[in-house]
Amino acid sequence: xxxxxxxxxxxxxxxxxxxxxxxxxxxxxxxxxxxxxxxxxxxxxxxxxxxxxxxxxxxxxxxxxxxxxxxxxxxxxxxxxxxxx
Length: 85
Hints:
Blueprint: H1 2-5, E1 10-14, H2 21-34, E2 41-45, H3 47-51, H4 55-59, E3 63-64, H5 68-81
Parallel strand pairs: 1-2, 2-3
């Protein structure tokens, strides 16, 4: 509802275990579908991505980071590459 109500440049998700890969993939698809920003950047992280960073492609996310501090740095880096309105 927030993504549909307000324009966000970036959204992040955390995945704790492989059990929820399909749910997260669906959530990312829905986030992109309802977002007021058609170029929204999707970051993913969490224990499951630390074990299997290749999941980024399967989840259709844009990037992953190993921890929260790195995610913030990555978000700033991606922000510089995209022209956000």
